Amino acid sequence: MVSIYEIDMDVLPDKVKILNFDTYSEEWLDFIHICRREKHSGDYDIVIGGVANDRVFNALGLFESGWLDKSEAIKRLRYEQPSIQYCFRNQSIIDNYLKFIGSEVLK
Question: In this predicted model, which residue has the larger pLDDT, 91 or 65?
Fold first, then answer.
């Protein structure tokens, strides 16, 4: 079963801090690396960006182990179309702006 939600980003207060990665980039790679190493990734309320799925994980793992430099890791990801995920890191945004639409059973 999959739950379906929606959020109107246009009605969020101006003070909400959003970090948005449209593509896999050096900035995205740095952010993921910091999250995995330090478990602290800033004071963003919402982070939007590509999922580190199996295809991405290989390049990410090679980068983190030192086998690839940042530039080469990004080159390997340039043809990957990111599956975008939203990470809500502020409970009041979830409570006040995220709307449950319904659910569907996957076949």
Answer: 91
